[in-house]
Amino acid sequence: MERKLETKDWDMRAGIGILGICAVDTMHVYRRATQKTDMSPSTFLTKLAEALIDNKFVVSSSTCRSMDSSASATSSISSVSGTSGVGLHLTPVKRWTNHTASNGTVKKRRQQVACRRCGKKTVKICSVCAADEDTADYTCAYCDSTNGRLCYKAHMQECHGTV
Asked: Could you read off the pLDDT of 121-143 as tens digits, one per residue?
């Protein structure tokens, strides 16, 4: 992006650089979450921009734009449930605990709870299940994909009917 949008202002260069980093990171997250690698970066960025313009979570009177008339850009980008803070997603456990390291220092960490599927430790809970039931005991905890386990993905398919 820095090479396409040239500017002499240092603040604009820094902003464009940060925007480029965010766009590339978003593309990597999308590809990892959906297992789709056939979309080119320019097509992805165009669809991402259209999805942000036509954000269905913000009520406004904007006209709907789309790259092609057959499918909406928001359907391909925002169909990845569990990746944003809106709707169905993993949210961190709210409780904190003191952890003493081997060198004697005490650090605050999120309380670890057992995953409902595999029983391993995690610090994430399902946002929808947490809103539905009393989560004082954190019974809706699931592993996320960052540690190689697909417990939350299986939970979304079984309980919420989404992928």
From this structure: 888 888 777 765 554 456 788 88
- Asked whether residue 128 is domain-assigned, the answer is yes
Domain stops at, among 47, 77, 107? 77
Q: What is the DSSP string of the chain?
A: -TTTS--S-HHHHHHHHHHHHHHHHHHHHHHHHH----S-HHHHHHHHHHHHHT-TTS---PPP--SSSSS-HHHHHTT-TBSSSSSSBEEE-S-EEEEE-TTS-EEEEEPPEE-TTT--EESEEEHHHHHHS--TT-TTB---GGGT--HHHHHIIIIIS--
* Residue in 161, 155, 31, 141 with CA at minimum distance from that of residue 91: 141
- What does the alpha-carbon distance between residue 116 and residue 119 come to, in Å, rounded to a whole number? 6
At residue 60 the predicted structure's pLDDT band, cuts being 50, 70 and 90, is very low
What confidence category does residue 163 fall into, taking pLDDT thresholds of 50, 70 and 90? low
CA-CA distance, 21 to 31, in Å (whole number)?
16
* Position 83 in a domain: no
Do 58 and 14 reside in the same domain of the chain? yes
